[in-house]
């Protein structure tokens, strides 16, 4: 039995000709963290709402722990038992303390359990020392952890998060991603996250789904999504790349490739190296620009009539003629 099975679901909103989600299918195991990425309007949030039982698919079905989700119109309060969503607006109670926010979903239980579970979640979410503060007295990352703790008090099996890190600065966000991963795994939960940020997805996920125009184009491990993308769109979405025809690549690298003539060759900018190692391809070009990126430099390189982006650890002088090398195993053919 699949923990969650989404079977060829489709959804078209009233007044729209194109479906928001079309024939989408995937499954996930218990304990997995899955992220869905894609451009705005690709159908990610609609998929999340269908999984959360907030809207119904017009076609297909969603099964959670072996049971088909109920239609939201058939329920007094839309939603599915065991599936909880952390919304972008967090939905905290502004005039109640951190402790009271977490305890609120537990009020139907006896006092001992309320206190025990609240104390546990304060500890798990790293909020123990802030338990008497109001939400507005917390940082953005602390508010996110509070929203997560409040949802965990409802004892979900599957957690849904829609753009959970979008309003946080990079330092807070990176720490929170690690915190969320630890919390989810320590509580033995499953998580589906929607995000625009590919780095969030790569850091946190066991599986990533890339959506485009309502379709699930690739559903794979983070490693395969990054290194073996099924389309140019996916390759470009996950970082800066150079895209060549077969003929262009062979000309630039002075080599032959045993691939179909209609195939594209993709090389990520970080796959270029300034020093040669065995089984590497070589090119030589003129430096047109060098832009500092913190961990190195983005180099604009002209090779014949072609313009390339490459990444270098050290700054290069404009006008210099320099060689770069690429490991054959880091070439992506699409």
Indicate the topology:
Layout: E1 4-11, E2 21-28, E3 33-37, H1 44-51, E4 59-64, E5 67-68, E6 83-86, H2 98-103, H3 111-124, H4 140-152, E7 158-162, H5 170-186, E8 190-194, H6 198-204, E9 207-212, E10 215-220, H7 222-227, H8 232-237, E11 241-245, H9 246-253, E12 264-268, E13 272-273, E14 280-292, E15 297-303, E16 306-312, E17 321-327, E18 332-333
Parallel strand pairs: 3-8, 3-9, 6-7, 7-8
Antiparallel strand pairs: 1-2, 1-4, 4-5, 9-10, 11-12, 12-18, 13-17, 14-15, 14-17, 15-16
Helix pairs in contact: 4-5
Could you characterize what this model shows?
The chain contains 9 helices and 18 strands. It has 334 residues and is α+β, with helices and mostly antiparallel strands. The chain folds into 2 domains: 4-236, Rossmann fold (3-Layer(aba) Sandwich); 240-333, OB fold (Dihydrolipoamide Acetyltransferase, E2P). The strands form 4 sheets. It has a 6-stranded mixed β-sheet, sandwiched between helices. A 5-stranded antiparallel β-sheet has the order 13-17-14-15-16, with no helix packed on it. Strands 2-1-4-5 form a 4-stranded antiparallel β-sheet, covered by helices on one side. Helix 4 packs parallel to helix 5. It is globular, with a radius of gyration of 24 Å.
CATH topology of the largest domain: Rossmann fold
Strand count:
18
Can you count the helices? 9
Task: Determine the structural class based on helices, strands and strand pairing.
Answer: alpha+beta
Please report the distance between the alpha carbons of the first and last residues: 34 Å
Backbone CA Rg: 24 Å
Classified in CATH, the superfamily of the largest domain is P-loop containing nucleotide triphosphate hydrolases
Extract low-pLDDT stretches. none
Largest sheet, in brief, is: 6 strands, mixed
Biggest sheet strand order reads 6-7-8-3-9-10
- The rough form would be described as globular
Task: Return the CATH class of the largest domain.
Answer: Alpha Beta
- Count of discrete structural domains: 2
Instruction: Assign a percent range to the helix content.
Output: 25-40%
The CATH architecture of the largest domain is 3-Layer(aba) Sandwich
* Pattern of helices and strands: EEEHEEEHHHEHEHEEHHEHEEEEEEE
How much of the residues is beta strand, in percent? 25-35%
> What is the average per-residue confidence, as pLDDT, rounded to a whole number?
94
């Amino acid at each position: 039995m699949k923990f969650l099975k989404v079977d060829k679901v489709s959804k078209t909103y009233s007044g729209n000709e194109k479906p928001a989600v079309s024939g989408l299918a995937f499954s996930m195991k218990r304990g997995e963290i899955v992220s869905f990425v894609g451009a705005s309007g690709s159908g990610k949030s609609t998929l999340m709402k269908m999984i959360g039982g907030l809207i119904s698919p017009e076609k297909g079905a969603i099964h959670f722990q072996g049971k088909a989700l109920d239609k939201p119109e058939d329920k007094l309060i839309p939603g599915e038992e065991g599936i909880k969503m952390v919304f972008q607006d967090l939905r905290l109670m502004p005039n109640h303390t951190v402790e009271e926010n977490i305890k609120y979903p537990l009020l139907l239980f006896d006092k001992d359990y309320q206190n025990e579970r609240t104390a546990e979640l304060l500890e798990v979410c790293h909020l123990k020392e802030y338990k008497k503060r109001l939400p507005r007295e917390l940082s953005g990352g602390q508010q996110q952890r509070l929203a997560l703790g409040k949802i965990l008090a409802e004892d979900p099996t599957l957690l849904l998060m829609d753009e959970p890190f979008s309003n946080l600065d990079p330092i807070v966000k990176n720490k929170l991603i690690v915190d969320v991963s630890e919390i989810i795994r320590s509580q033995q939960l499953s998580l589906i996250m929607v995000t625009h940020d590919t780095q969030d997805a790569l850091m946190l996920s066991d599986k990533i789904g890339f959506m485009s125009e309502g379709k699930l184009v690739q559903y794979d491990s983070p490693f395969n999504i990054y290194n073996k993308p099924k389309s140019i769109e996916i390759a470009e979405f996950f970082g800066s790349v150079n895209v060549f025809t077969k003929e262009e690549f062979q000309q630039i690298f002075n080599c032959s490739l045993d691939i179909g003539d209609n195939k594209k060759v993709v090389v990520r900018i970080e796959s270029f190296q300034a020093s040669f190692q065995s089984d590497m391809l070589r090119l030589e070009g003129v430096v047109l620009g060098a832009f500092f990126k913190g961990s190195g430099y983005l180099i604009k390189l002209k090779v014949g009539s072609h313009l390339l982006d490459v990444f270098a650890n050290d700054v290069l002088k404009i006008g210099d003629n320099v060689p770069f090398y690429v490991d054959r195993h880091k070439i992506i053919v699409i």
